[in-house]
What we know:
By secondary structure, this protein is α+β, with helices and mostly antiparallel strands. It folds into three domains: about 5-170, no CATH class; about 180-385 and about 430-550, Glycosyltransferase, CATH 1.50.10; about 560-640, Sandwich (Immunoglobulin-like). It is built from 22 helices and 17 strands. It has a five-stranded antiparallel β-sheet, with no helix packed on it. A three-stranded antiparallel β-sheet has the order 3-4-5. A three-stranded antiparallel β-sheet has the order 10-13-16, with no helix packed on it. α1 (about 5-10) packs across α2, α3 (about 55-65) runs antiparallel to α5 (about 110-135) and α7 (about 195-210) crosses α21 (about 525-540).
Amino acid sequence: MTDAQGMLSSIAEPGRAGASAMRGSIARRRIVRTALGYAGLLTLAIVVVHLGARPDVAALALGTAFPGAGFLAWTMPDGSASGLALALCAGSAALFLAALVLWFATGNVVLPGVVWIGAAVAASALVGPWSAAFAAPPPPPRLAWIPAALLIALASAAGLAARTARRGATRRARLESDARPASLPAEPQPPRREIALDDLRRLRLLLDRALQPVERFDGFEWRDQFQTAAVRYQVNFISYALSAAAHAHLPAFDGYLAAAQRNLVAKQRDPRMWRYWALESLWGHLRAGRDPIARDNIMFSGFLAAQIAFARSGLGIADHDAPGSLRLEHPSGASFNYSLPEIVEVLARQYRAAPYGLLACEPNWIFPLCNLITAGAIRAADAQYATRHWDAIASKFRHHLETDFTSADGRLLAFRSSLTGLGTAAPGGAAAQALACFFLNAIFPDLAARLWSRARRELDGPRARRALWPIDFGNYGFGRALSYAMTAAAAAEMGDVEIAQRMLDLLDAQHPIGLLGGVAHRDRASLLAHAVELIARLAQAGTLRSLVARPRARTGTYPRIASAAYPDVLVAEARADHGVLRAVLHADTDPGIKTLEFAGLVPTCSYVAEAGAAQRFTSDARGVATLRIPVHGRTPLRIVPAA
């Protein structure tokens, strides 16, 4: 490698100090290729402008060097550029910047190239008539300074990146040498077994939205379907929160919790959730394709697989095990049929072939967080179906996560362009790093501990508030509700009770909660923020890791609450142990006699239900019984076999 290549390769931001970490780095090679290609283009433009006598060729060369620069070849007789030429140059540059934003936001890889090349061609085609109209001379050789200046800027950027990478690697080495040895989080002592009444009221906000008719989306926030405020993410994270609740507190409850999970999957089948992909496939892959699962769309396929797999682990919902049981119907009449195992097989196949080891969330853009969620889905499915997909891809996934998607100073990148190799760790601040820890803990707990140790230093430092971005990506509003919730959720998963409580206290102080009809809501906080907050409040150390790796056994006979009218009865805890069901019920605002159905009992066996007074009953031939239980405030319930 030449010295120039070595300088340019530093932009790749190696994940570990030392050259060894960069062996096999796809990103480094892509960045070197991109930078050297652009440097060659600038060099050619310098030669053409300096030596060429044709105005149209000079305009084309300048235009390919920088968007809109070709218009600067429209010189006046005195050698100066006209106001129109300057305006067209500035307008082209602004239009190109907007195209870059749309490329990032929607995966439209075509638009930036169309704007850049289109401006160059337009300047070249019109320079002849312009020169004739104003008797303008050929472009002066001094215009060659434009690509020359860009070439100098490119070399300076490479040098700055090299110095930044070295400083980052040094700082990371110092932090890791000072840190305590990473250890897996332990369960809090004692573990929280029951959902508090205040949290049940927060949970009602999510349940109200999940339990409404499938075709309705009252209370969801419609902003766009391409980026972080997309409704599908609100549905995903509501489901993740319900899965966490089931796994940590309600393993012996189906009822409205299972109904809500089924509704949420059905909502994801709504074409409004996934028909955006037809556009992204067209302008990102340059091919028509409506199937949102077939390729490079883990922001739908991976998140949906996690939603189904987590609900299956926490509640035993096996609705999408059979081939073709998940049907996506496009308004055009096309339909795409999958099951959870089939989605996971598609994802695993793509991972095995992925050059970066990680998959694009949308055309060209690879987001590590999306991949961590998807990896959790694959590992959860493996645990439930006894498959080995994750084992086949884990080593490659981890290697590229550490080399291509970790910055020199140890932060996880927010995204990287698979086309150019360029990426950054900046967007999202400490909260984005923290949320990555939450999902990373389910697949690589040691990496999660290392990343959390680094993120915690930012949260403990004097700039902690500045490290938490004041933007709610769930609705693009201003406020730190989502940042506090994301950080608290990660802290809870990592067993860091201190940080979790600090973040939740800040959330309460800056976004006070309101109560309407027994439902809690925070003003100026997105629905996504509410869902992530519930994860923070209901999850305990290692909840997601346990949900992924150790699904609840749903075979055999075990007593459970099969039905409870929502919202008349709020179930705060439900656990079965050795044939005994223990639960805690709340009537909240309407106490009285409530009807509950129980399943999983020994058929035609006598039981005693203890809820204040004791009542004896006998299960039917299916092991089912319906009881009327007095529920006044917090009501403990215990169902045991009769002596």
